[in-house]
Specification:
The complex is a heterodimer of chains A (249) and B (353). Chain A is of the alpha/beta class. Chain A is built from 9 helices and 10 strands. A 6-stranded mixed β-sheet of chain A has the order 6-7-8-3-9-10, sandwiched between helices. A 4-stranded antiparallel β-sheet of chain A has the order 2-1-4-5, with helices on one face. The longest helix of chain A has 15 residues. The radius of gyration of chain A is 18 Å and the shape is globular. Chain A starts with a strand and ends in a 6-residue tail after the last helix. The model of chain A has no long low-confidence stretch (mean pLDDT 91). The relative contact order of chain B is 0.10. Classes of the chains: A alpha/beta (249), B mainly alpha (353).
Chain lengths: 249, 353
C-alpha cells in the first residue's frame, strides 16, 4: 500500500546545529510507529516536520498525497489531516474544555456549532472526561488536560495522529490514564506516530519501533525483534536504561 | 479594638507612634475637608447675577455655573439648537453602555442587533450634529464644542486607534522584516512627537502639504491626529500582551490548521488583550483627558469651553468654579472607565493559567 507519510532525505538545522542530516521514513496507512532515542536525537524535530510546525530545509515530505511546501503554503492543508498532541498539552487557557475541542472544527472546517459540540462531547466521552466539558484547562489535572488535548486533535477528524512525548510532562500517577486513552485510540486503526519512552506502550500497540540517534534511524523493526535483537550497542544501552526505570541518559 | 475594626484600620493604630501619625493625618484631612465644605457649601452663593455680588458671601460662586453651564457643556453650538448635541451625546453614551454590557454579545442575533444599532445610530448622530436634513438648521463643525466634542474626539479617536494598534502590534512581531520595520518606524515616530505638535501639524501645516482644493475639516484632522498618536501607544501595550503568550499556543493553533488571521482572532489576541486591559484602560483615560489639548488649535472642547466661559465681563475673575465643574465631569467619565475595566478583568479572570 502507498505510504500515507513519506519523508525523503529531510534535512533540518537550527542555525549551525544540524539536527536532521537526511531523514528517510515511510509510514503506511493505519500503521503505528513509536520513535524513541536519547534527548537531542531529533525525534521531536522529525515529527514536527511531518505537519510543518518545524519547516524543513531540504528534502521531500508528502502527507496523504499533499506535498508539504512552505513556499506554496500547503502546510495548513497538511495540518488539517494531521492531529498533534504536545508534551506541554498547549490547551487554550481562555477557552473551556468543550470550546478547546470545537474552536478548530468551527473556525477551520466551518462546521456548525451544534454539530461540532455534539462530536466534541462524544470525543470527551471517549477520553473519559465528559463531566469536565464546561471547565477551563487550569482547573484540570495534567492527565486530564492531556486527554482533552487528544480529544481536541481528534475533533478535526485527522487521518494521522502525532504524539510528541505525551506523557513526559505528567506526574507518574497520571501517565496510565493518558496511555490508556492512546491504546483505545490505537484500536480504531488510525495512523499514529508517537515519540515516547514508554516501552510498555510501544510493545503493546506499535507495529514498528524506531530508534533515533543524532538525526539518523539506527533501528526500525517490529517490537518483538526490537527488544530481542538490538541492532546497535547504543540501542542495547538505551533499552538497559529504560528497563532499569531510569530513562535514557 | 474589635476584629471588624482591625480589618479596616490594619496597623494604623497598633503602636503609639503609628497612632500619632494617623491621628495627625486625620486631623489635617478634617481641616482641609472642613475648609472646603465651608467654601463650597456653607458660604456658597447660588443666585447672584454678577461676580461682585457673588464675592460678598466669600464662598464658591455656583451662581456662575448656573448661569453659564450651557456654554461650558456645549461651547459655541447655537444656543437654541443645543438640544441636538445633548440628544446626540445621550444616544452615543447609551449605545456605548449597551455595547459594553456582556449580555449584548451573548448570542449571534444580539450581536447582529448591536451592529445594526451602531450602523443606524451613527448617521443619526451625524444628522443631529451637522443638521441640514429634516428641517434642522446646518451647524458647521467649527461651532461644535464642550462635552459632546470631548466625548467624540476621545471615543472615535480611541476606537480608530485601537483597530490601528492591533494591526501595528501584529506587524511589530511579524515574521516579515519589511512590515516589522515599517511598524517600528510608525510607532517610534508617533510616540516621539508631542501630541500638541501633531495637533498643530494637523491644523496648520496640513493645508500646505496637500493640493489647495483638497480640503479637510479641522475637526476631522484633529480626530485623525489623536487616533494616529494613541495607536502608537496602544500598539506597544498590545505587543507586550503578545509577547506574554507561550510559543505552544502558536504551535497548537497551527496544528489545528488555523490560518494566520484565524489564529490571531480566536487564540492569540483574546489572550493577549486580556493581559493588557489595565494598560489599555490607562491609555483610554489618558486619551480622554488629552482631548483638552485641542484648545491649542482653538477648538472649544470641555476645557476650552470652560476657559471661554470665564471671559465674560460680569463674571470677571472667576476661575475655580468652572474648572472644578469640568474636573468633576472628567472624573465621572474616567471613574466609569476604571470601574468598567475592573469588572472586565474580574469577568475574564476565569481560566487564567
Amino acid at each position: 500500500m502507498a505510504p500515507i507519510i513519506t519523508m525523503e532525505r529531510v534535512r533540518k538545522s537550527y542555525g549551525p546545529i544540524l539536527v536532521l542530516p537526511g531523514l528517510d521514513l515511510n509510514v503506511a496507512p493505519g500503521q503505528r510507529v513509536v520513535i524513541c532515542g536519547p534527548s537531542g536525537s531529533g525525534k521531536s524535530t522529525a515529527i514536527a516536520c511531518i505537519n510543518g510546525l518545524v519547516p524543513h530545509d531540504a528534502g521531500r515530505i508528502v502527507v496523504d498525497g499533499i506535498a508539504l511546501d512552505h513556499a506554496r503554503g500547503t502546510a495548513p492543508d497538511v495540518r488539517r489531516m494531521v492531529g498533534m498532541v504536545f508534551q506541554q498539552f498547549n490547551l487554550f487557557p481562555h477557552l473551556t474544555v468543550l470550546e478547546n475541542c470545537t474552536v478548530g472544527p468551527i473556525t477551520v472546517q466551518r462546521r456548525s456549532r451544534r454539530e461540532a459540540e455534539a462530536e466534541a462531547m462524544a470525543l470527551l466521552e471517549r477520553v473519559r472526561i465528559p463531566d469536565q466539558a464546561a471547565k477551563y484547562p487550569a482547573q484540570l489535572s495534567g492527565g486530564q488536560q492531556q486527554r482533552v488535548a487528544i480529544a481536541r486533535a481528534l475533533a478535526m477528524r485527522p487521518r494521522i495522529m502525532l504524539f510528541d512525548e505525551p506523557t513526559s510532562a505528567l506526574d507518574p500517577e497520571m501517565v496510565t490514564e493518558v496511555l490508556d486513552a492512546m491504546v483505545a485510540l490505537a484500536d480504531t486503526g488510525i495512523t499514529m506516530v508517537v515519540v515516547t519512552h514508554e516501552m510498555g506502550f510501544a510493545r503493546q500497540v506499535a507495529h514498528r519501533i524506531l530508534y533515533m540517534d543524532r538525526g539518523a534511524i539506527l533501528q526500525d523493526s517490529p517490537p518483538a525483534e526490537f527488544f530481542a535483537n538490538p541492532a546497535d550497542a547504543r540501542v542495547q544501552s538505551f533499552l538497559d536504561h529504560v528497563r532499569r526505570g531510569e530513562g535514557p541518559a | 479594638m474589635t476584629a471588624a475594626m482591625r480589618r479596616w484600620t490594619g496597623g494604623l493604630f497598633d503602636t503609639i507612634p503609628n497612632a500619632i501619625v494617623s491621628l495627625a493625618l486625620l486631623w489635617l484631612a478634617a481641616q482641609a475637608g472642613g475648609a472646603f465644605w465651608d467654601w463650597a457649601v456653607t458660604r456658597a452663593n447660588f443666585d447672584a447675577t454678577t461676580a461682585e455680588a457673588c464675592a460678598r458671601t466669600g464662598g464658591a460662586c455656583w451662581a456662575f455655573i448656573a448661569d453659564r453651564w450651557r456654554l461650558i457643556l456645549f461651547g459655541t453650538y447655537p444656543f437654541t439648537q443645543q438640544w441636538r448635541p445633548a440628544l446626540a451625546l445621550a444616544l452615543f453614551i447609551a449605545l456605548i453602555v449597551v455595547s459594553a454590557t456582556p449580555a449584548s454579545w451573548r448570542s449571534r442575533p444580539r450581536r447582529r442587533l448591536l451592529g445594526l444599532a451602531w450602523l443606524l445610530t451613527m448617521p443619526l448622530l451625524g444628522a443631529l450634529m451637522w443638521g441640514g436634513v429634516a428641517g434642522l438648521p446646518p451647524v458647521p463643525s467649527r461651532l461644535w464644542g464642550g462635552l459632546p466634542l470631548t466625548v467624540m474626539l476621545a471615543s472615535v479617536g480611541v476606537g480608530v486607534a485601537f483597530v490601528l494598534a492591533l494591526l501595528l502590534a501584529l506587524g511589530r512581531v511579524s515574521d516579515m522584516p519589511v512590515i516589522r520595520v515599517l511598524c517600528l518606524f510608525y510607532i517610534e515616530f508617533f510616540r516621539g512627537v508631542p501630541l500638541i505638535a501633531l495637533l498643530f501639524l494637523a491644523a496648520i501645516l496640513f493645508p500646505y502639504l496637500v493640493p489647495p482644493d483638497w480640503t479637510m475639516d479641522t475637526l476631522l484632522r484633529a480626530q485623525l491626529a489623536f487616533a494616529l498618536f494613541f495607536a502608537a501607544y496602544m500598539a506597544e501595550a498590545i505587543r507586550g500582551g503578545l509577547q506574554a503568550i507561550p510559543q505552544g499556543q502558536y504551535l497548537a493553533a497551527d496544528s489545528l490548521g488555523m490560518g494566520y488571521w484565524q489564529a490571531r482572532r480566536k487564540i492569540i489576541l483574546p489572550q493577549a488583550l486580556r493581559t493588557v486591559i489595565p494598560s489599555l484602560v490607562n491609555i483610554f483615560i489618558a486619551a480622554f483627558k488629552d482631548t483638552s489639548l485641542v484648545v491649542v488649535i482653538s477648538m472649544l472642547d470641555l476645557l476650552g469651553a470652560a476657559n471661554a466661559s470665564t471671559a465674560e465681563a460680569k463674571w470677571w475673575g472667576l476661575y475655580i468654579e468652572p474648572y472644578l465643574f469640568i474636573a468633576a465631569i472628567y472624573l465621572v467619565f474616567c471613574a466609569a472607565m476604571s470601574a468598567y475595566s475592573r469588572g472586565l478583568e474580574r469577568r475574564l479572570g476565569v481560566g487564567v493559567r
